[in-house]
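Homework help board

Subject: predicted structure for assignment chain

Our instructor gave us this sequence and asked us to write out the predicted structure in token form, then describe one feature. I got the tokens but I'm not sure how to describe them. Can anyone check?
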Amino acid sequence: MIVKTYCAAVNGLEISKVTVETSLTNGQSLTLTGLGDEAVRESLARIRTAMIHTGYKFPNRAITINLSPANKKKEGSSYDLPISIAILAANEVLIPTTTGSTNGTTTGTPIGSTTGNPLNDYMILGELGLDGSLKPIIGALPIALLAKKEKFKGIILPKENEKEAAVVSGIDVYGMSTLDEVINFIKGINTPEPLKLDINELFAQQQGKFDIDFADVKGQQQVKRALEIAAAGGHNVIMIGPPGSGKSMMAKRLPTILPPLSLNESLETTQIHSIAGKMNPDQSLIFQRPFRSPHHTISQVALVGGGTNPQPGEISLAHNGVLFMDELPELPRSVLEVLRQPLEDRKITISRAKYNVEYPCSFMFVASMNPCPCGYYGDPTHQCNCTPGQISRYLSKISGPLLDRIDIHCEIQAVPFSQLSQMQPGEPSASIRERVVKARKIQEKRFGDYYKSLDSSDPDYTPNSLRQRIHCNAMMTEKMLRLFAQPDEASLDMLRMAMERLKLSARAYGRILKVARTIADLDGSEKILSQHIAEAIGYRNLDRGDWAERGTV
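My token output:
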């Protein structure tokens, strides 16, 4: 008899249905086919021991297990449970209880041999401990979405994963703790209620809860203004200042002023964290925008993703949130340069000999750096000990193409102790966030009306195009700049004069217009005025012609 159970393969963000085909014949052998990795091949030893500890005899026959489709790579330990259930069913151990029975007696045809087979109704996943306990898996949410798409009645998985899977409506989610519980459920002895979550109510309750606030930041009004503009337009930003000036402190508070995650954004973000194994057992969704802050010793693979078994990198874990890179010039040049394409395309494609995966990575890039290796170049209270050559080499580590993708450059000075001890708490994050959300709504309406006005002949019309997801000023195309960020004559003259006098590079032109558009949105102005251009020009410090010459004068 051949028995089939169903589970799923996780390859990047691609989730596919896997059929576990099991056959028991005369003989003594154990064969596993279907392109499983080492963890899948090791599952047979775990399954044998778990069955024995649960009170079931492992069949002393020739067992053939095929994971179909056989050409799709299978990784991880989530196949333990469906394989073990398939073996038990093929060995005719799983027999349903008598209808109406109260003492658990069994009778009838073994499960797996009839058309009314309950194994056809559920997707089954879980890692087995040697004692028969079920351990959590990765990818519970995207697997539950697949189960719904494939029209399964429900999904059976470890207890720790049930909250994550239960956010998907329309399927029954059963969280189990042991192999014995799963066996009894399939036999009809134990039929618990599936977990149900009111995801909209849960989402509303968890939004806007932060342990930190911009009210903790004293002084630095100019920098806080720059971060408000960055949050309102989705702009990338770099902060340059001496140690202890509050760069990291303010960067960590940036998520508190960003617009709340929408439910769709939350589901997107949760799927990435789920396949990366970053979800907590009691966590159902990611409710706040991610804030990722990798150390400057991070490797290229850890940043962009990949590895022997493909995993999302830090840039994908920051999707719909913030990627903060402290001590930016301390990162290896090769690591810095791989950021260029993801910042532009908002997705990363990783191609290797054995796989090709694509991860989304639409994030706000926030960086900080010192003005020199010792950190005190230009500081009025500390002497800089760096040589001109050291300063020049330090600053030149950040290439022009990377800098081109950062809209706002902000220089910071340390706040004197006399002011720190006297100042009252700053403006709270809630007040700043209110202005940011108002500006974002203006942008969403603007771009929404733009897409509605397009006809099928326009390049931006393509439904699956990346441009279709433009929702903030930082993502505007050249065409959109001409439509929505065209300055008047006076502003254009000011911009021309600034570029000539301050030696601004040509690449700064579009960035200044995008930032000016955001400043105008914060002011509630339909047109970009000269004061908006003037403020935007002030945020291009690293584009000044004299910046690269620092330390050589």
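Reply (TA_rk): Your tokens look well-formed. For the description, you could write something like this. The chain has 22 helices and 18 strands. That's the kind of observation they're looking for.
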